[in-house]
Structure prediction request, 143 residues.
Amino acid sequence: MRRIFLALCWGLLALMPLGFTAQAQAPAEQQLGPDGQPKAAPMPYADRIYQAQTAQGWSKTYYESFKRSQEYRYLRLAADYCLRSMQILYDTQNSLKKTESFYYQTRNKRIYACDYYELLQEASYQLETSQYLTDPPGSWCDF
Prediction:
């Protein structure tokens, strides 16, 4: 008799909605960014590195187009994508501890991106003075 009663109780509990049997928890407070909008959830390391490598790949593609056509717009696009890659890598590296191996892998990728941006800057020196590429902002290339 007791087994039947327990089976019935478990069956009824399984049919009840979770909100009815468990107390509802208050939603976690979201952190706000500098613009007052909620910050996005942090992305996994692999996704951030993928984004940085994709941006670096587009930078190389546009630089090759610049070398063929000598049009400033391609060099500007290459620089913009390279800066985006450096920003992602800088933010990713700052979110890691120095004791993690990913910290040093990210640092090496950022060094490569900064060296590549220097190559783009040197290419801009063959253009008019108004079209020179500026230095990367902040400490993105300070090691």
